[in-house]
What does this fold into?
Amino acid sequence: MTRRKPIATGSDWNFEVLEAYERELACLADEYRLDTYPNQIEIITTEQMMDAYASVGMPVGYHHWSFGKQFLAVEQAYRRGQMGLAYELVINSDPCIAYLMEENTLMMQVLVMAHACYGHNSFFKGNYLFRTWTDASSIVDYLVFARKYVADCEQRHGVTAVEQLLDACHALQNYGVDRYKRPSPISAEEEARRQTEREEYLQAQVNMLWRTIPERPVGEALPGSLDDGEDPLGLRGGGRYPPEPQENLLYFIEKNAPLLAPWQREIVRIVRKLAQYFYPQRQTQVMNEGWASFWHYTLMHRLYDDGLVDEGLILEFLQSHTAVVNQPAFDSPFYSGINPYALGFAMFSDIKRMCEAPTEEDREWFPDTAGGDWLEAVHFAMRNFKDESFIQQFLSPKVIRDLKLFTIVDDDQDEMLEVTAIHDERGYRRVRDALATQYALSVREPNIQVHAADIRGDRSLTLHHVQDSRRPLGRSVYPVLRHLHQLWGFPVRMESIMDDDSLGRRIQWPIPDEETK
Amino acid sequence: MTYFIDRRANAKHKSAVNRQRFLDRYRTHIKRSVEEAVNRRSITDMERGEKVSIPARDISEPVFQHGPGGKRTIVSPGNKEFVEGDRLRRPGGGGGGGAGEGGASNQGEGMDEFAFSLTREEFLDFVFDGLELPHLERKALVDLDEVRPVRAGVSRDGVPARINIVRSMREAYARRIAMRAPIRRALREAVEALEVEESKDPVLRNPSRIAELKAEIERLEKRLEAVPFIDTYDLRYNNLVNQPQPSSKAVMFCVMDVSGSMTQAHKDIAKRFFLLLYLFLERNYEKVELVFVRHHTAAKEVDEEEFFYSRETGGTIVSSALTLVDEIITDRYPPGQWNLYVAQASDGDNWDDDSVTCREQLMKSLMPRLQYYTYVEITPHAHQALWEEYESVADEFPDRFAMRQIVEAGDIYPVFRELFKRRAAH
It folds into this structure.
């Protein structure tokens, strides 16, 4: 390969230089079969970066105090020098929007382009979770719609009313996703057109469900007695409602809460849709960052090998890269959990290594991958897994040894902690299982479902918390139930189902009188 | 396909609304911090923002979470000496939790407090929240000398610098259309007549008529060309008229007794009071000037440094200062152009017969010209003659004359708030 002249040297950048590097990266990405959305690269200032940060990376968002709080926290940490701003932020949209901060050096800008515009971008486009659950082409439009809708509601119903509703929805937003069903695509135009229609329809549905609310003159008929023809939901059948437990709490609220006004249902829906949009990101942190780091590493080295960047730049890059993928040990003062960049980068690099220089161990553990085409192998891994299954499938003994992973069991019935597996022959599989479980959302978050809505009685709502390994709910259950109560409008109950299926603790909001006395 | 977009010029404060919402929501918390800060801070320190802490539990956004307890398996990196089956004591003695329980809570400093900074503007907003300047309904427009030119349509005359080009060209265009229309019509008729004449059989043509028509056409075309493209009466000028303006200038007189009885502690208290008032005025007027007048038996206009830090001894004659203020107003600050404020600080001592003179001076010449007069008496002792005389002034001008007693530094801010608290419209 002929070595070419560096496109630029030093740490200053300008648009021509960035464009030139971007073109080179695009050629290389093509060579590595990275399929991406078009890139929209935006140069912004520090302050704008903090803005973007505060709104969880959404380019437009509705107004809410919690974003202000986020902004203040980011600003404070940044001013005190506690935290360097992440030098990149990328949005899963089509075109894929990536931010470059103006005070970054040339190296940083090239690194961020490699990392975000080709790493993350191709992940967004290729990974099955994103393909199934999000609509990159319509998200920005939908955000614009949401912002306008919320602003209109603030005008009509007052800022406080909207704020309280959003508070309540935010508390439940992790339970506002469909885990197994593909959501219908969202489109701003469609939303706006269908929105009025939906308001009427929804209200009609709810009215049907709550027809049992006694509004007829006293003595005419008992509440709950419907004519035969008027009972499409089988209310008189006496079965539980909903017939199946519902895991999407916000969806259930949107469709069934008896007292919400149509605009309130619409806002619940907006929060739910956005939660759904972020759902894949929450499940692919290790993979997504690992993939992007793997590619910025590969692409930067290619640029250097081709002579397009000089030694100074590649050294600066290596220093920065090393800091990003550094994994402090559990007893280090800098330890704050497993670094997803470090783990993901180690795993993708390891897949490449297995293909190029397989050992006996690799052939035994990964007969399908070892010695194969590395590019094919990493693309396959990127496309078809989420963190949980990715670790289960690809965490090799070598990575476990390199990171010196070990498992500890913390059991409140045992006075001591116990080390149950380390990086040895007996421990590999157990470490791998435990780490995969640690990344499973279903384990990270308590399992909570709507069990029953008492539509014939006191209209109370009962949730079930299915305990896992005897882990109870944290104290935050009270404020969250209070929020849920605001949405539902009638008493809300939370019942814990213990590991042996017996009924455990029961919490109710509002707290019944006899308990407060 | 890649686009680069330079967004640096875009609006910066995208989060401003959210930030404001947050501040509004936690108003009471923040106000408490601000009040503490005002009392704690040194005098020169008012001009910066403030760090505010709010208990984290008050602003948490709750979600369902696992509580401590139960059985969990934690994977951690960096094993050094453990082997399988090792049993360890729990770190810190707490039940459960431990390492690996979510990154967020382990990061950074203690999470019991949510700390952030207010900007200077926000800080002062909170400091002066709910306060207003009495008599801010500024002076009646008639006795104002201050004017500002404002646009008032267009006029037919003016100076060349103010030509309104668009309007002038439009006028010219309209005039040209109007002036050319009859000529064009005549021309068209002549041309048509000529064509009719020329299309006739050569025998029937009237050569003299043709010549006549041709001459007519030529004459009309000349006239058409002679219509000027632009003419003096097309010109239009942007018209400016002078509008009287409410005054945006204020002058604040700081009057302080520097006689022997005023200690440095007294002066510090006075200084804080003056500073608060100055900051407050500064937020309401574009321009605020300060005049420092100090007095013992004689009054003198001095600069800030001398005002606060030089020491004098001797007796006290307050009226000397009031006379000086009166003279300065007459000389330099005509009430038509300036909003006048006087803040006086003293320990209440005065020469025996002088207090009556003070009252008369205030009633007759000063008060009618002033926006507001505040008097603070810094003393833990009983009031003397001056206070009593001033009370009668306060009765006469209840809206514009205010007086309070300050005993210690902690009183300054409450007293200030009381002096300027928003009054119900009367």
Observations:
- Chain A touches chain B through 103 residues (CB under 8 Å).
- Strands of chain A lie at 39-44, 88-91, 96-101, 406-411, 417-421, 447-453, 461-466, 492-497, 503-509.
- Chain A has 21 helices and nine strands.
- Residues 325-442 of chain A form one domain.
